Here is the input.
Amino acid sequence: MSKYEKTIGLEVHVELKTKSKLFSSSANTYGMDTNTCVNVVDLGYPGTLPTINEEVLRLGVKAAHILHCKITKRMHFDRKNYFYPDNPKNYQITQNRTPIGTDGYIEIEIDGEKKKIGIEEIHIEEDTCKSAHRGKVSLLDFNRAGVPLLEIVSKPCIKTKEEAIKYLEKLKELLFYSDISDCKMEEGSMRCDANVSLSKDKDKLGVKCEVKNMGSIHSVGVAIELEEKRQEECLEKGEVIKEQTRRYDEKKKATILMRVKETGNDYRYFPEPDIPFVILEDAFIENAIATIPKLPDELREIYQEKGLSKTQAEKIIANRSLSAYFNQFIKRKTNYTLAANLLLGDVAAYLNKKNTTIDKTNLTFNRLQELIEKIEDGSLSSKNTKEILEMVIETDTPIEVIMKEKGIQNIKDDSIILQVIEKVMQENEASVKDYLDGKDRAFKYLMGQVMKETKGSVNPKKANDLLKEKLKERSV
Here is the structure.
C-alpha cells in the first residue's frame, strides 16, 4: 500500500450537439473535407462580431441540471488571451468568472458503496482549430474552430483510477442520454485531461501534473496509474516535482513531458466586449429542463421493477436505440423478460450482423409483441423464432403467413405433449432413475429427447414444466 495520498481531478471537454457553431452560422459537423465548414468569424477576420447560439445555452442549462449544479442566471463571456497557431483570433471566448453551472456532483458506485464526485464548474467555450503535425510542418483544419464546448471540471476528490473511470463512464452516459453530446472519444467530441498529485500529508494537496492525449476512458485509467507510479518514484528519490503538462504515449506506455509551468498561466482574462451580459429567465431554464428524457438511473429502476435482471437492464441501457425501443414496452402490459431476451439475443445478433439499428427495421412494437404472444402460447419455439426472425425484421409480411410459408405448426395441445413425455420416460428408465436420485444432468438429457421426438415443434418452457410434473409424480 502506498504511503502517499493520491488526488485526481478531471477536466472534460465535450462538443455539443448543435447544428451550427457557438458564435457563427458555420455548420457544426464531423468528417467533412478540411476547411469547408468555416467562415470569416471562425477565421478571426478583423471587424467580425460573434453572435451567441441560443441552443448552446439551452444545452448548458440541461447539463448543469443533470449534474446537480447551481445554474448561473446572469453571466458573461470572457476573453482568454494566448498566442498559438490553432487560435486564429489570438484569444479564446470562454466563461471564466461566471460559468453556467457551479458546485455540482455525480454519484458513482465503487464495490457496492456510493460516492459523490464533486464538480467545481461547467463553463461554455469555443473550440480551437485541429492541428495535424507532419514532420516539421503543422497543418490547421478550421472546421473545428468555434465548435461549442462544455468544459466540466471536477473537484480534486477522486482517489483512484477506478473512481476516475466510473466518473467518466457516468458522465458520458448522462450527457449522451440527455442529447447534449454524442461523447465519441474516438472522434474527439469528448476529451479528458487528468490532474494527478501525490502528497505525504492527507490534508495537503501535492504538486499537480496535468496529463493529456488520452483517446479512451480505459486510456485515462492507464495514464493515471502510470503518472502515479512516476511521481512516487520521483518522491522516493527525493526529487522535487514541478507543476507540468505531460502527454500519454500509448505505444511507450508512459507519460512524456511536454512543458514545465515555471509560473502560473497569465491569460489576462477580461469580459468579452462584443457580447453583452446573458440573462437566463426562469421560463427559459424550465423549458430546457423539461426536454430532458428519462435518464439511465431512472430507467434501471423501472426495468428492474418490470422483472429484468441487473445484467439485462445494463445491456439495454448500453444500447440507446434498444433502450428507446424497449421503453415502448414499459408503458404496456407484456412479458418484459421475454421481450428483453429477444432484443438482447436474436434481435441484437441480427442488428450487429447487418450493422444497423432497430429503428431502421420493420420490427415495430406491435410486431414484436405478436411474436412474444406466439412464443408464449406455444405457436413458436425458440428454434422456430430463429428461423423466421429475419423475415419478421426485414418485411411487413404477417407473422402467420411467414409461419405457413415455413411449414411451422407447433404442438400446443398439452395432452399430446404429455404422450410424448410418457414415451420418452418409458424408453429412458435409467435416466428417470438418475434424475430421481438427484442427478440433474439427467433432466437435460430427457428434455433433449422430448425436443428430438417432437422435432422442436413444442414450446421448450411448456415441455420443461410438464416433464417436471411427470417426474414429480414418479417420485411420490
